[in-house]
Amino acid sequence: MDLTVLHYFVLEKALGIVGPEAQRNWPGVAYVRTFSECLTRVDRGEARAALITNEVTMAEVERVCYSGAVMPPKSTFFYPKTIGGFLFSSIRDEETTVPFYAAFRS
Q: Is 16 a residue whose pLDDT tops 60?
Protein backbone atom coordinates (compact mmCIF):
# COMPACT_ATOMS: atom_id res chain seq x y z
CA MET A 1 0.00 0.00 0.00
CA ASP A 2 1.15 3.51 -0.74
CA LEU A 3 0.48 4.61 2.85
CA THR A 4 2.66 1.84 4.22
CA VAL A 5 5.53 3.09 2.07
CA LEU A 6 4.85 6.68 3.13
CA HIS A 7 4.74 5.90 6.84
CA TYR A 8 7.68 3.51 6.90
CA PHE A 9 10.16 4.97 4.42
CA VAL A 10 9.33 8.68 4.54
CA LEU A 11 8.02 9.42 8.02
CA GLU A 12 9.95 6.79 9.95
CA LYS A 13 13.21 6.21 8.06
CA ALA A 14 13.76 9.61 6.39
CA LEU A 15 12.25 11.93 9.00
CA GLY A 16 12.83 9.81 12.13
CA ILE A 17 9.23 9.88 13.33
CA VAL A 18 9.02 6.33 14.67
CA GLY A 19 5.74 4.56 15.37
CA PRO A 20 2.08 5.21 14.61
CA GLU A 21 1.46 7.25 17.78
CA ALA A 22 4.38 9.61 17.10
CA GLN A 23 3.33 9.97 13.46
CA ARG A 24 -0.28 10.67 14.41
CA ASN A 25 0.71 13.35 16.93
CA TRP A 26 3.53 15.02 15.01
CA PRO A 27 2.41 18.59 14.23
CA GLY A 28 4.26 18.59 10.91
CA VAL A 29 1.82 16.16 9.29
CA ALA A 30 -1.70 16.96 8.15
CA TYR A 31 -4.01 14.57 6.34
CA VAL A 32 -6.32 16.13 3.75
CA ARG A 33 -8.72 14.48 1.36
CA THR A 34 -8.33 16.43 -1.86
CA PHE A 35 -5.50 17.11 -4.28
CA SER A 36 -6.55 20.76 -4.63
CA GLU A 37 -6.31 21.32 -0.87
CA CYS A 38 -2.77 19.88 -0.88
CA LEU A 39 -1.73 22.29 -3.63
CA THR A 40 -3.42 25.23 -1.91
CA ARG A 41 -1.59 24.58 1.36
CA VAL A 42 1.77 24.44 -0.41
CA ASP A 43 1.01 27.53 -2.54
CA ARG A 44 0.04 29.55 0.57
CA GLY A 45 3.15 28.44 2.42
CA GLU A 46 1.11 26.50 4.98
CA ALA A 47 3.00 23.34 3.98
CA ARG A 48 6.48 22.77 2.62
CA ALA A 49 5.51 19.64 0.69
CA ALA A 50 2.50 17.58 -0.25
CA LEU A 51 2.73 13.81 -0.52
CA ILE A 52 -0.06 12.34 -2.60
CA THR A 53 -0.97 8.66 -2.32
CA ASN A 54 -3.40 6.43 -4.15
CA GLU A 55 -6.66 5.62 -2.41
CA VAL A 56 -6.84 2.41 -0.43
CA THR A 57 -9.05 -0.17 -2.13
CA MET A 58 -11.39 -2.53 -0.33
CA ALA A 59 -9.30 -5.43 -1.66
CA GLU A 60 -6.24 -3.97 0.10
CA VAL A 61 -8.19 -3.54 3.35
CA GLU A 62 -9.34 -7.17 3.14
CA ARG A 63 -5.81 -8.46 2.46
CA VAL A 64 -4.39 -6.55 5.44
CA CYS A 65 -7.23 -7.71 7.73
CA TYR A 66 -6.87 -11.36 6.74
CA SER A 67 -3.09 -11.20 7.16
CA GLY A 68 -3.40 -10.02 10.76
CA ALA A 69 -1.37 -6.87 10.03
CA VAL A 70 -2.39 -3.37 11.11
CA MET A 71 -3.39 -0.63 8.71
CA PRO A 72 -1.24 2.52 8.79
CA PRO A 73 -2.73 5.69 10.31
CA LYS A 74 -5.43 7.36 8.20
CA SER A 75 -5.51 4.49 5.71
CA THR A 76 -9.18 3.89 6.42
CA PHE A 77 -10.01 7.56 5.91
CA PHE A 78 -12.43 6.85 3.07
CA TYR A 79 -16.11 6.99 2.20
CA PRO A 80 -18.82 5.83 2.36
CA LYS A 81 -18.72 5.47 6.12
CA THR A 82 -20.93 2.90 7.83
CA ILE A 83 -23.83 4.39 9.74
CA GLY A 84 -23.50 2.88 13.23
CA GLY A 85 -27.17 2.93 14.15
CA PHE A 86 -28.05 0.62 11.30
CA LEU A 87 -25.58 -1.95 12.55
CA PHE A 88 -27.20 -2.19 15.95
CA SER A 89 -30.87 -2.06 14.96
CA SER A 90 -32.85 -5.25 14.58
CA ILE A 91 -34.77 -6.01 11.43
CA ARG A 92 -36.77 -8.94 12.81
CA ASP A 93 -40.55 -8.53 12.44
CA GLU A 94 -41.40 -9.58 16.03
CA GLU A 95 -39.23 -6.76 17.39
CA THR A 96 -41.00 -4.04 15.44
CA THR A 97 -44.43 -4.41 17.08
CA VAL A 98 -43.44 -2.05 19.90
CA PRO A 99 -41.64 1.15 18.98
CA PHE A 100 -38.03 1.23 20.17
CA TYR A 101 -38.57 4.36 22.26
CA ALA A 102 -41.44 2.73 24.21
CA ALA A 103 -38.94 0.60 26.14
CA PHE A 104 -37.49 3.76 27.70
CA ARG A 105 -40.74 5.26 28.98
CA SER A 106 -41.31 5.30 32.73
A: yes
